[in-house]
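Lecture 7 notes: from sequence to structure.

We start with a single chain of 154 residues. Read the sequence below before looking at the structure.
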Amino acid sequence: MKGNQFTLGLRTTMNINVVNKSENPLPKYAKQGDAGMDICAAEDIHISPFNWTAVSTGLYVEIPEGYEIQIRSRSGLAYKHGIQVLNSPGTIDSGYRGEIKVILKNNDHRTYNVSKGDRIAQMVVAPVTTATLTEVAEISETERGEGGLGSTGK
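Now the structure, written as tokens:
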């Protein structure tokens, strides 16, 4: 056990301090084993066709150092309405203390109406790996090499 973390089966759990300035309940996991918690809109807003906007959630979080929160699209909104988190996954760093806002894009030809309390995105807590970059003259060869963007076929 380290700080406010503990292991439950194969899952690590932790406490994250949250200030909730919305009328919505705190995000929670819908089912045991879920990776993401649904987060809700704190405002009514209209997203015009093929446009995007930042939607307030009223949530302010204190993420432990060494972790991030990722904001991801909800599959149902994407499939049924063409609504996606534009910068998915959006990253909230441990040092950020502002309001969580979700950039939603409407990929449909109809206006999409968001109402207070609507579940608009998923929030995933994830560990962060810090890398050190080392500049070299060349990198190693692989079988794939420089093949990208569909080079492996259908």
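The helical segments are 75-81. Keep this in mind for problem set 3.
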